[in-house]
Amino acid sequence: ESDTASEISFQFNKHKKTPSIGSHSSDMASVSSVSGSVLSVYSGDFGSVDAQGTVEFALDYDEKNREFQVHVSQCKDLAVVDEKKGRSDPYVKTYLLPDKARMGKRKTSVKKRTVNPIYNEVLRYKIEKMVLLIQKLNLSVWHNDPLGRNSFLGEIEVDLASWDWSNRKLNWYPLKPRSLSAVNGVDHRGVMNLSIKYVPPGSLGKMSPKNPPSGEVHIWVKDVKDLLQLRPYGVDSFVKCYVLPDTSKKSYQKTRVIKRDTNPVFNHTIVYDGFHTEDLKDACVELTVWDHEKLTNHFLGGIRLGLGTGLSYGISVDWMDSTQEEVAFWQEMMSASNEWIEGLLPLRSL
Question: Are 264 and 198 in contact (CB under 8 A)?
Answer without folding.
Answer: no
